[in-house]
Amino acid sequence: MAPKPDADFNLANGHGYMLDSHFRAASRLNLQHYLWREALGYVVHPSISLSKASDAQVAIADIAFGTGMWLIDVAKKYPHAQLDGLDINLTQCPPSAWMPKNIKLQHWSLFDDVPEEMVGKYDFVHVRLVIMVLTNEDRTRAMTNFYRLLKPGGYLQWDDMDSVRTRVKKIDPKMETPALDQLRLACWAEGRHDWMLDLPSLLGEIGFVDAKMELNDDEEDLIRPFGDQHLCTMEEFGDRLVSVGEKDGANRFYRFVHESAAEGQRGAALCIPRFVVVARKPPVSELKL
Question: How far apart are CA 25 and CA 10, in angstroms?
Fold first, then answer.
């Protein structure tokens, strides 16, 4: 049995979104977007076909869009499509005047009922990195909402972290990395997120078809950039723990981060693989009545 860390992401339970929304958090999200784009080599999975007589007919939603960088990239690829950003916090993205004109932003939580005017509206729904806010108890509601947002035949792309295969990479296998080892266990959080690796079958239970998962690991030149970005996330999580009264847990995370940064300078990093799941809502001819 793996040793239990001093503190882990189970401390987020019951608190909703446990990262910040200040300018440093926005900068972290922007870095995260560019790292993901570099690692994946795309923003829209190549298997997703949105071609129509005119892409002006295409409606795309990005759920929990953060700073809007994914939307901005996709707006360049589909300049005549309608892109809607849906989130509970609109303060981290650029003002509308600085964004492509085909992007609209609105308040909506993935746990809220889908407004009637949004039911069956979208050809493509994208969601990324909701691993921290979804649990075994509320995942079905969120996945059902994603399904309801889509038109028949529409696509879902879900990008997230594979915490199960999180590990510490080192230039010297003999190097001791006690702090990074603690962070690895904190990310795994005693299996808190293990269900995510069953997403294709879970989405199938909701009604999605053709669900496939692709795994993506760190190339050597991205190990350190991703590792540093993970430390930023952990430190931010510590700040939020303080705000909800979990000061002891926060101090443990701060210690993990500080000591992990020193280990990183010696040639080690926390590696959290990524996955992308693509699924489809059946076309009208295949929908169960």
Answer: 21
